[in-house]
Amino acid sequence: MSELTLTVMRLGFLAVLWLFVIVAVQVIRSDLFGTRVTQRAAVRRPEPQPPRRQPRQQPPPQAGGRGGRQRRGAPTKLVISEGSLAGTTMALAGQTITLGRAHDSTIVLDDDYASGRHARIYPDRDGQWIVEDLGSTNGTYLERTRLTTPTPIPLGTPIRIGKTVIELRK
């Protein structure tokens, strides 16, 4: 083997070794200082306003249902009571709310114990809100019970995802 080939191999090995050291330092740094969280306020779209309805006559009551209206005593807002987003309130407008670390979630959780797509909260046909764990690693808890199936959420009952606690309130 020529001297030139041996020198090129040594320098290549040295470059790969330094690349490994730099990657290891970046991993340790991200573990110590966490990931950089971007502010979503600048890119957040305003909440859609419900369409204005013209006054009209009330339809006759249906025999077995509520006629699509929200029932009395139903929650109107979602409140985050613990965690990095404590104090955040979101109006419930009948849409599905996704929770997780993914940037396209409705509520982005900066929580080491939350999965990318952790859970979702959605209304059912009766106007009751349902929470469903989406196969998360650390689980979703309703009060102190780990969820395994979609479960109705009683008003004011805490939903725990890692260090974040969420409640539905009037």
Please sum up the structure shown.
The chain has 170 residues and is α+β, with helices and mostly antiparallel strands. It has one helix and eleven strands; from the N terminus they run αβββββββββββ. It has one helix at residues 3-33; strands spanning 77-82, 89-91, 97-100, 107-108, 119-123, 129-133, 141-142, 145-146, 151-152, 159-161, 164-169.
Highlighted features:
six-stranded antiparallel β-sheet; alpha+beta; five-stranded mixed β-sheet; 170 residues; elongated; 11 strands
What does this structure look like?
The protein has 170 residues and is α+β, with helices and mostly antiparallel strands. 18% of the residues lie in helices and 24% in strands. The protein has one helix and eleven strands. A hairpin with a 5-residue loop joins β5 (119-123) and β6 (129-133). Mean pLDDT is 81; it is low at 58-68.
What structural class is derived from the secondary structure elements? alpha+beta
Total of DSSP H or I helical runs spanning 4+ residues = 1
Oligomerization state: single chain
Strand order of the largest sheet: 2-1-11-10-7-8
Q: Segments where pLDDT lies below 50 for 5+ residues?
A: 58-68
User: What is the helical fraction, as a range of percent?
Assistant: 10-25%
What overall geometry do the principal axes of the alpha carbons give?
elongated
Major β-sheet profile: 6 strands, antiparallel
> Element order, helices and strands?
HEEEEEEEEEEE
> What percentage of the residues does DSSP assign to strands (E)?
15-25%
